[in-house]
Every structure is written in C-alpha cells, then in structure tokens.
Design brief:
344 residues; mainly alpha; 11 helices
Length: 344
C-alpha cells in the first residue's frame, strides 16, 4: 500500500513538472561561441590533428594499437561479452537517433519551437559529412583485416578511422546536454554523455572491430561537432522562422479555399393586389355559415289507438289471432242486454 502511494505521488510530481511549460518559453537559453568554448574547440582540434599525425607516421600509438589487438580482450573477459554486444548499440546511428529524436520531438511540441529537432538534424548532418569524409579519405583497415603487423594500415580502402560508433555516441547523447535548460543539467548530462561515448568506444576495442586510436579520434571528432554548434545557431533560427512562415502560408491558403458562409438576403416586401372579377360574372354574396340543424324526429308510439290494459291485448300474428272465435262472447266495455227473469 505504501509503495503504491509513493508511486502515485512521484507520478503526480512528474506530471506537475511537465505542466509548467504549457506555452513557448519567452527566453530560450541558446549557447554562444564564448571565449571558453573557442579555447576548447581549438584544443580538441589540435588533439584531433595530433592523433592523425601519430598514426600517419606509425608512432608509438600504432604500436599500442597492435599490442591491444594481440591482447584480445574478448578472450580475456568472455563473461561480459554478451552484455557489451548490447551496450555497443548505444553508438549505432539508427537506434540512438530515433530515441533522441523522439525525446526532442516531444520537447519541441511542448515548447512550441523547432530548435531541438533542427539542432539534432544539423549535428547529424555535420557528423555524416566530417566523419564520413575522414573515413573515406584515410582508408584505414580494421584489426580483423590488418595485413602487415606493425603497420598503420592507412590508405588501403578501409573505413574505420575515426570510429563512427564513438563519434555518433558523443553527438547524439551530447546533444541532450547541449540543449539542457539549466547549467546544472548541462554539467550532469555532459559528464554522462562523455562516459557513455567513451564506454562505447572501448567496447568496440574489446570486440576487436576498432583500433584504440580509432576510438580516440572518434571521441575528438564528435566533441568538435558539439563545440562548433553555436556557430550554426543563426542558421537554425532562420530555418525555424522559414518553416513557421511556410506553415502560416499553408494555413492562410487553406482558409481562402474554404467558401465564406452565405449571407441571408432579406427580400423586399411585395404588395399583393386583389384580383379583379370578370365583368360578365356577378360576385355572389358571401354566405354565412349555417350550423347544421337536426331534423325533427317523428314521435314513436308504442301502439296505435287508445291505451289498453295488458289483459285486453291480443297478440297479432300474420295469420290472425290464435284464439278461436266465440260467437257468444261480448267484448268488454259494451253493455250486456238484460236477461229475462224467470220465476220458479
């Protein structure tokens, strides 16, 4: 129960922190090419050129590369081989670019700005151009394809110098530190990206796919790109403005294509004149409605004639009376003749 409560409180804090930036920030901290950054860029460039020169002249650095290769670290510590096979993915271009782009895309949507995504795109473009050109230009073979022991293996058609995994890890994870919103977050993310990228480089040495000097040069190549990004900030700003203007024009064009709502037109009143009657026809006067009157009902008599008692009524049938006639019967109501008195 307590664990669930702590988890709920932590999630509430996270979402509350995310809801603090509902609109685009008024002031976005954009790194500038300061004097300190210029000094770091110059020192890193000197380190880059020194490594290239040390490999070209087959100096002690090349002898160190061969010694590490003959040591075969993957045979010395085979128990970590499986873990490092997955760890080296942190330096592959495709997976890392997708993960970082997803995070920066969400941040761009949250802050209503395209700068994070445009900065990532600029850094990856610089990485492909500079590192790709160096790989093809120097053409060094890797440890698995080395031909002569002790040689620098330069100019033989290879493409491993500098290490692309190391340079890509420096750029893709270092861009998060470059775009950090606070100095403290920038310091922590810088240290984390440096350790991650150097670990990826040493993993390639362990697996035998790169020389140690490849890793050092790749680390310097990625750092040069991060240090040079402030010079491209005006270009990123212009690109962002152009994209927003293009979006506004598309929206305006879409609004013009939508037909305007029809305005109801109120017709003017028309005077209707009565139609004149023809001359040859006479206008009949209007009849008043007559309410229907029920016809007088004929009175119904139960029996014709004067009222008679029930005992005197004789049912009548179509064949006549059912009683036989009596000649000596005198109807009631008539006076009987007096009988003659007879004496005894």
């Amino acid at each position: 129960m307590r664990t669930e409560r702590n988890l709920t409180r932590s999630l509430d804090r996270v979402f509350a922190r995310l809801d603090r930036e509902p609109e685009r920030p008024a002031h976005i901290d954009v790194p500038r090419m300061s004097r300190h950054r210029v000094v770091l860029f110059t020192a890193t460039l000197a380190f880059y050129l020194a490594i290239v020169w040390a490999v070209v002249i087959t100096s002690w650095l090349v002898r160190l590369d061969w010694q590490v290769m003959f040591f075969r670290p993957y045979q010395q510590w085979p128990q970590i081989h499986a873990f490092l096979d997955y760890y080296v993915v942190l330096g592959q271009r495709g997976p890392t670019a997708v993960m970082v782009a997803a995070w920066l895309g969400w941040r761009s949507w949250r802050q209503h700005t395209l700068r994070p995504l445009l900065t990532l795109a600029t850094s990856l473009l610089l990485l492909n151009i500079t590192v790709g050109a160096a790989k093809l230009g120097m053409g060094r073979l890797g440890p698995h394809y080395a031909t002569v022991i002790g040689s620098n293996e330069m100019g033989l058609g290879g493409d491993i110098f500098p290490s692309g995994h190391t340079a890509n890890a420096v750029v893709t994870w270092g861009i998060l530190a470059y775009l950090a919103s606070s100095p403290r977050a920038r310091r922590w993310l810088s240290a984390l990206s440096a350790v991650t990228s150097l670990g990826v480089g040493l993993t390639t040495v362990y697996l035998g796919t790169h020389w140690l000097s490849d890793v050092l040069l790749g680390w310097a190549a990625g750092l040069l790109i991060l240090l040079a990004l402030p010079w491209f900030e005006p270009l990123i700003t212009r690109a962002e403005t152009a994209l927003f203007d293009l979006r506004d024009r598309w929206r305006a064009r879409g609004d013009r294509t939508v037909p305007a709502p029809a305005v109801p037109v109120t017709p003017s009143p028309v005077l209707l004149k009565p139609r004149p009657a023809p001359a040859e026809q006479s206008v009949a006067p209007a009849r008043e409605p007559v309410s229907p009157v029920r016809g007088s009902r004929v009175p119904i008599h139960l029996a014709p004639g004067p009222h008679t008692a029930r005992s005197e009524r004789t049912p009548v049938t179509p064949a006549g009376s059912r009683r036989p006639p009596h000649a000596d019967r005198i109807p009631r109501g008539t006076s009987q003749p007096a009988r003659p008195l007879t004496g005894n």
